[in-house]
Specification:
single chain, 67% helix, 2% strand, 2 strands, mainly alpha
């Protein structure tokens, strides 16, 4: 009897230990099925997931110190009209609230739901993981001097004057808060061992852009809001003081710029929902780089006797070239039935909102030098406008009409970047193979691969900077040495801006290249699955209907193949 009691005690202890092991091992991204065995399931109702997501989004957008995400323009705040608090205590409090939302998510069991609803569960989980990565790993408010410049830059974002009374008051409030924010930056960036000198270098370069934006703002306010011009001066003085502070302390900043392989892998799996590791991605990107460079050289040889493309040489020619390219692309999409051209998919406001605003006004002289891509798109504008119009602008128009509470719209923390940038990038080359460059100067095919090659070298820079193998300077040298006509990149604004994007917005260019590869894998899988019943238009319509979400989830929903998703649980 005593022996049996002893066995029972040991068994109970072992069982308790095993239960504790399951609980501890069920970290971010754990299997809801495992969660259900270690925690009481409070709900199996999809409506509770929708409610949770709404609450979590409200939490992220509330208050003055919440950071929505990192874009190519820098870190974006959710509330521009308040003075943000980025102190260690304030940010720790915000991070601590994440666990409340995670507990609610763990209490929801989605196992009996339709695949589309389970996809939404993954999206909510990924967004919470993105919030964690931002606080646990990046912590830009304590590690990145450029973070505060990004915030200051957003303070100057206004509509074209004249401004409404409340808009003018908000701008004045933000401008007056710049000196306080600079002082806060000096206090919060107090551990130089956490700050990388490369990030200080990028911050100094970015401050130059912010200064130019503030000077342009002052000039624009003189006519309609002269009373606000005086508020720009102190903000500029504070910005100059911040740059001086960074320069004087840069030599003391000894931190590492990249996140390291371990956290990079965690980000891939739990936020970007990639079924790949750093090593997998390095191989994929290197192979893609080999391919596009090889194809570029083959096209050069094929077209060796063809008259060259003639670049535009004035603002008027530039705009005429864009308009011709857009008309050509729109006609091709309609005639070839690539995807359903809904009535709202039109380029009406594309030029002002996405392209002309990034270029020059007709009154400006034609510049002697351009950014790297313009050297190619000035010769053949179809690919760039396919990327921007068909890829991004049409995505925006679709998102505006997508009212699904979880699925609709873009996603923070670059969760949708592989889908958004990857598909826009893929269309440049794939529509070429579909025929949209037929009948045009064949040197345009070279431009397609030249632009693609700059993306693959940026992706490799991303991978190796974050693993710690390359410094910012080494990544710059690699791009110059390996991008087609890399001499155009030497000392350019374009190069440091792109490396800033991918070093501070972890994985941006890698996501673009991998997203293209994942799209082609999905197309292959779906075509093989359907055989003779595969129709390109129907396939792409389904892709767009899925929304701006990770490819692994789209693939699961479209094909039923769960091999990738199963690795993410």
């Amino acid at each position: 009897m005593k022996g049996n009691r002893k066995f029972l005690v040991v068994f109970v202890v072992m069982l308790a230990g095993f239960g504790l092991y399951l609980l501890l091992s069920n970290g971010p991204g754990g299997d809801p099925a495992e969660t259900a065995t270690t925690q009481t399931v409070a709900s199996t109702d999809y409506a509770d997931l929708v409610s949770l997501f709404g609450d979590f989004r409200s939490f992220q957008q509330a208050g003055s110190g919440n950071i929505q995400s990192y874009s190519q323009s820098g870190w974006i705040l959710s509330n521009l009209d308040a003075t943000p608090d980025f102190s260690a205590a304030a940010m720790a409090e915000k991070y601590g609230e994440l666990e409340t939302f995670r507990e609610r998510l763990k209490s929801i069991d989605p196992r009996g739901w339709a695949v589309s609803e389970q996809v939404d569960y993954h999206l909510v989980r990924a967004e919470m993981n993105g919030y964690e990565f931002q606080h646990r790993v990046l912590s830009p408010w304590s590690r990145d001097p450029g973070f505060y410049n990004d915030v200051i830059a957003t303070f100057a974002w206004v509509d074209e004057p004249p401004l409404q009374e409340d808009e003018a008051a908000g701008l004045q409030s933000r401008l007056s808060s710049v000196p306080d924010l600079v002082q806060q930056a000096k206090e919060n960036l107090n551990d130089f061992s956490l700050i990388a000198a490369d990030l200080a270098t990028l911050a100094i370069l970015s401050i130059g852009d912010t200064r130019s934006a503030y000077e342009a703002l002052a000039e624009g306010l003189r006519i309609h809001h002269p009373e606000l011009v005086a508020d720009v001066g102190p903000a500029l003085t504070a910005l100059d003081d911040y740059e001086d502070w960074i320069r004087s302390n840069e030599h003391r900043m000894t931190g590492v710029a990249g996140v390291g392989k371990e956290d990079y892998n965690w980000l891939l799996r739990n936020v970007y929902l990639f079924p790949y590791t750093w090593d997998d991605i390095r191989t994929i990107v290197e192979l893609e780089d080999n391919r596009v460079i090889t194809f570029q050289r083959l096209e050069e040889n094929r077209n060796r006797d063809v008259p060259p493309l003639v670049p535009v040489g004035s603002q008027i020619e530039y705009r005429e070239g864009i308009e011709e390219a857009v008309d050509h692309v729109m006609d091709f999409l309609r005639e070839e039935e690539i995807f359903t051209m809904h009535d709202f998919l039109v380029p009406d406001d594309y030029f002002d909102s996405r392209l002309y605003g990034k270029g020059y006004s007709l009154e400006d002289p034609w510049p002697e030098t351009h950014d790297y891509f313009f050297n190619f798109s000035h010769r053949e504008a179809v690919m760039e406008n396919t990327h921007e119009l068909v890829g991004h602008h049409f995505d925006m128009l679709r998102a505006e009409r997508d009212d699904r509470p979880i699925r609709g719209g873009e996603r923070p923390y670059k969760i949708s970047t592989a889908r958004d940038e990857g598909l826009a990038f893929a269309l440049e080359e794939l529509l070429m193979h579909a025929g949209y460059l037929d009948g045009r100067n064949p040197h345009g095919r070279e431009v397609t691969y030249e632009q693609a090659a700059f993306r693959t070298v940026r992706a490799l820079s991303d991978i190796y900077m974050h693993s710690g193998d390359w410094s910012l300077e080494e990544a710059e040298r690699f791009c110059i040495d390996n991008a087609p006509h890399g001499e155009l990149l030497a000392g350019s604004h374009h190069l440091w801006f792109e490396l800033d994007t991918t070093l501070r917005g972890v994985g941006h260019h890698m996501l673009m290249v991998l997203g293209k590869v994942q799209f082609m894998k999905l197309m292959r899988d779906r075509a093989n699955q359907l055989g003779d019943d595969f129709v390109l238009r129907e396939f792409l319509d389904q892709v767009y209907e899925a929304g701006q979400i990770p490819w692994a989830l789209i693939r699961w929903e479209m094909t039923g193949y769960d091999d990738e998703v199963s690795e993410l649980w």
